[in-house]
Prior knowledge:
The structure is a single chain. By secondary structure, this protein is an alpha+beta fold. The protein folds into two domains: 47-274, no CATH class; 330-425. The chain contains 15 helices and 15 strands. The chain has helices at residues 4-22, 28-40, 59-62, 70-80, 124-141, 179-184, 264-271, 278-295, 300-313, 317-326, 333-347, 356-373, 376-392, 399-427, 429-440, and strands at residues 47-49, 56-58, 89-95, 111-120, 144-145, 148-157, 162-164, 167-169, 174-177, 186-190, 196-200, 211-219, 224-237, 243-245, 257-258. Strands 1, 2, 3, 4, 5, 6, 9, 12, 13, 14 and 15 form an eleven-stranded mixed sheet that branches. A two-stranded antiparallel ribbon has the order 7-8. Strand 5 and strand 6 form a beta hairpin.
Amino acid sequence: MASPNDQSQADLTRILESARRLGVEVKEAEALQWLAQMAASKEGDQITLDERTGVFGHNITMLDFSDKELEYFRRVGKIVEFADVPGVIETALALSGSSAQSKIQTYPGDCDYFERINILAPTRAEACQILEKTMRQKALDTLHGPNYQLIEVKFGQYPQSMVVNGHEVKAGAPASWKPDQIRAGKIEGFLPDGTPVSVAWDEFSADPGWCKLDWVVADPIRKQLSNASNMLDVTWEAPDGSITPLDGYLDPYFQEVYLEAISVPIFSKLAQHVSANALDDYVHQLEKEVKKYLTRDVNYGKVAKRMYNIFRLTGRYQEAAFLRELFDEPATLLYQVWSLIRTIDDAYLPESSITYEQMVAAADRLIMDVIRVLEGVEEAEIVGTLLRLRDALRRPEARENLTLEAEAARSQVINVVNNFFYDRLTGMPAINEYMTSVQAG
Length: 441
């Protein structure tokens, strides 16, 4: 039987063959080390704590995390995190998504956070009331400040179908709250028959559903804008110690890096209640997203990111190692450009604390990023669109025009990103076969 090291070397040889054929640069020593670490990660504890930095997470997840930007993530975390309330609210803040994979994703899109919030209350109804008050107060406290601006909050589900801001929303759909609606404490609209209707914030508390907050953050050191989101997984702890997720599902911990060792007790308590089928459920959900981005909302960059998580958790290390190398390719910088164009558009709000100068500096950085990565006709077309986007920032009255320019730029950039990932994903037989099977499934 081959040793783990022999198997890792054999996998690396096959990866190098595919990479050379597809023009992908591979850091051989790092790739071999990762393959060996993945083989070893099958043994030992599932959770790894870095005693030097205090961060912790699933051992496979920790292999992809770099603490190089840890202080920056902790600084932004101070904006997005919820505070503990002794005897009432316990929290554990983590990085997720590409932010938790900073060792391999040189050009992450957003600052994605995930926070476990455990509410101790006599009844579920009281826990829901505590959540709705806490979330609204958090939103009001962080509407804007030095270098950040709240964009949107997801809280509750619409109790009936209605038209809001010119768009029809179905009963049961997640409710999206803009800053002015949060201040007012209500969403106003009208029923399909034209009857005016208003739904108050606290009326959503019984069924909070998907809870998420989004900000735009300006980093004065790096001179760039980022979208910072905090996805909440809220649980109710009853007096008898039982744990109930308020949205009906306790999220697993396969893609989270927790930022403070002090969170270990609350994490450990909640992790005991994660379903025994959590890994299978998580992979199944990711596969549904892969199919979505292959067929409906085509985005091969998102396909690659989700397949990486599937492959590294299901033992397909050769395919995962190949995808790791793709995320470090210069062309993937355009994935970040695509995300940040939306961030600039989001930040352009009346009375926003994100300044005109900060938005222009972010646009200038995007232009330089495109020039660094592209050449020829593609470069000229995208740079031209970004210059029009930059020009639109000067005209406060032209909000709609700015959005049109932003969407035009995003469309051009995602086309280049899609072509890059499509060529390389379909060029590796094992990955191409997997995508074909997901599409057919």
